Structure formats: C-alpha cells, structure tokens
C-alpha cells in the first residue's frame, strides 16, 4: 500500500503517521507538508524507511505515483493562524483536495478531516451530522469554515458522480501533546500562559462552551474509522468528546493547577461560537467500542507535562 498524508507534520497528522506506520501492509507513507503550522520535530522520533517527507504546498502537489489511500489534513486549525492567511487556508483545504484526488488510484480511499466549524454558531445542541449549520460566509472565520464545507461538497459530489471510498470526519476542539506553543487556541494558550507565570486570557465572559477532545481518544476514533475495510457510511461523522465545558471552567481548572494564576478578560472575537457539542449517535453505531475515555482534567494534566518538556527544550535549543 502506498499512502499519502497531507499535513503529516502537524499536530493531528503526526499522530496519524505514528498509527499508519504500525501497519505492516504499508510500503510507502508520503508526508506532504509545507511546515506552515506543522513542525518536522513532530516526526523526529520516527526511524522508518517507509516514511518520506516532502516539504511543499499540497495545492501544487503532483506525482506520477498513484496512492491507495490519501489522508488530507493539511490546514491550519487555529483561528489566529487561519484568519491571518485566509487565501492560503482556502487553497490548502480545497485546492489541496483537488490536487490529491488527481493522484488517488481508481477505487482508492480518500479521508478528510473536516470540522465542527461547519456547524458555525449552532442553534441545535448537540449537533447531529444532519444539522446544516449557521455559518457566516463573510465573517472572519469563513476561510476555514467555508473551505472545509466546500471541500466536503467536492468530496461528496465526487462520490455521487464518480464513486470513491470516502471517509469524512468532523472534529471537535482537539487538544494535547504536539500542539504548537504559539498555536493560539484556548487549551494551549492557557497552559503556556500558566507555565510562563502570566495571566490566563479568557475571551468574553468564558460562558461559551466547547467539547474538548484529547488527542489519543480522537486518533483512536480516526484510526477505527479510516482503517475499516468495509464501510457503508462515507461520512460525515462527528468525532469528539461529548462532554461540553465552558471556556471559563477550563481556564479556572488550569489556573488552579498552577496554584491560582490570574484570569483576565479579553474581548470576545467576532462570530465566536456560543456552544459546540457533538451528537455521537452515529459514531457509536459505526465505531462500536469507541468512546472518549480521557476527561479534560486528565488530558490537560498530560498536556501540561508535554508543554513543560517542550518549553524546556526550546529554551535550551
Ligand atoms: N479562547 C479564550 N482564550 C484564548 C483562546 C481562546 O477564551 O486564549 C476561547 C475562544 O474565544 C473560544 C474558545 O476559547 O470561545 C475556543 O477557542 P479555540 O481557539 O481553542 O477553538 P475554536 O474557537 O476554534 O473552537
């Protein structure tokens, strides 16, 4: 099997690469990553001749080799990063998917990590996959939300018109080891701020909720779904932890872990969703036995330990 993973140097992508290389049927695992938000360090621990890394933009990717399986993860996922470069965000998701479809073997598998952002600021809770969402296509989050939505359209319409072994997941606020210290999302911000002895920045009053998924739980779900041999359901499939927790609670928890750091309020960003929680009915049916077993209290502790080491190393290096 020849497999390609775009964004394989990234936070989630690198964890997928680890799992892919455990498979004995894989002869080539090609990572395509431009290191915009990904880091080569995330694959540093791997010593395996089957792994090849091409540092380049996925939207210009071309190859004579066709791939049996393609995993398209290349995209920033953190609001400050995608808001800073909206055009590039759209290119990596949408144009990237077009380029990758060109190098998929006929009958090959195409997996795409979409996002709970397709639900926008939801009016329904929890959000089932059938909920069409409340997204503002002119807002500052739109480059991410709409490019994920349009890539879903491209893939589901390719499935309808040409056929494809498709797997589309929608991920909900994933956090954990290998997040960039300067990623800018809530959990990593709170932890890096606490480690640096700074106040934790809560946007708005912190009553907005998210469903925080620890990376190992999420990748367990992805592995089960992506690797399933026979599948009746091409997606979209919600993958996340369905325990919904206000941002302020997470900030307070982390502040207390550090003996009571100060929490300060910043203005709430435009279009910041008020709530987010996956309906996991479908996931439970399609992935029997899978569930998120790491509560955020435990996941945060593990992430703190990882960041502690990471920040020590980056000071030395
Ligand atoms: N957030 C916050 N402080 C931060 C970063 C984020 O209060 O330093 C809030 C943000 O406004 C949002 C929630 O935490 O309501 C989750 O933000 P994140 O960027 O992690 O993910 P997303 O907005 O994409 O769900």
UniProtKB/TrEMBL annotation:
Cofactor: NAD(+)
Stored Pfam families: Epimerase (PF01370)
A cellular-component GO term for this protein: cytoplasm
UniProt entry keywords in alphabetical sequence: Decarboxylase, Glycoprotein, Golgi apparatus, Lyase, Membrane, NAD, Signal-anchor, Transmembrane, Transmembrane helix
One GO-annotated biological process of the protein: D-xylose metabolic process
Localization in the cell: Golgi apparatus membrane; Golgi apparatus, Golgi stack membrane
UniProt topology in membrane: Single-pass type II membrane protein
Single GO MF annotation: NAD+ binding
Residue span(s) of domain NAD-dependent epimerase/dehydratase: 3-225
InterPro entries for the chain: Epimerase_deHydtase (IPR001509), NAD(P)-bd_dom_sf (IPR036291), UXS-like (IPR044516)
Name of the molecule in the record: UDP-glucose 4-epimerase
Species the sequence originates in: Pararhizobium antarcticum
């Amino acid at each position: 099997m020849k497999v390609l993973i775009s964004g394989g140097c990234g936070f989630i992508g690198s964890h997928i690469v680890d799992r892919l290389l455990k498979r004995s049927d894989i002869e080539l695992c090609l990572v395509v990553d431009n290191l915009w938000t990904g880091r080569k360090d995330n694959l540093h621990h791997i010593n395996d001749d089957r792994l090849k890394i091409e540092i380049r933009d996925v939207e210009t990717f071309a190859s004579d080799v066709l791939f049996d399986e393609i995993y398209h993860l290349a995209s920033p996922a953190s609001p400050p990063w995608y808001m800073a470069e909206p055009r590039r965000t759209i290119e990596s998701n949408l144009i990237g998917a077009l380029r990758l479809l060109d190098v998929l073997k006929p009958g090959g598998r195409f997996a795409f990590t979409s996002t709970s952002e397709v639900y926008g600021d939801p009016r329904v809770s929890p959000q089932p996959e059938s909920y069409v969402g409340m997204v503002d296509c002119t807002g500052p989050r739109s480059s991410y939300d709409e490019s994920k939505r349009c890539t879903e359209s491209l893939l589901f319409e390719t499935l309808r018109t040409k056929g494809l072994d498709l797997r589309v997941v929608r991920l909900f606020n994933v956090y954990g080891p290998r997040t960039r210290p300067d990623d800018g999302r809530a959990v990593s911000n709170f932890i890096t701020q606490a480690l640096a002895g700074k106040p934790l920045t809560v946007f708005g009053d912190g009553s907005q909720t998210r469903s925080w998924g620890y990376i190992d739980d999420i990748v367990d779900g992805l592995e089960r779904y992506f690797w399933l041999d026979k599948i009746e359901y091409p997606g979209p499939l919600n993958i996340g932890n369905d325990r919904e927790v206000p941002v302020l609670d997470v900030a307070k928890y982390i502040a207390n872990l550090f003996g009571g750091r100060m929490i300060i309020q910043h203005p709430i960003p435009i279009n910041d969703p008020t709530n987010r929680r996956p309906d996991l009915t479908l996931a439970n049916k399609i992935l029997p036995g899978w569930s998120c077993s790491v509560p955020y209290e435990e996941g945060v502790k593990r992430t703190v330990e990882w960041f502690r080491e990471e920040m020590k190393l980056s000071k030395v290096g």
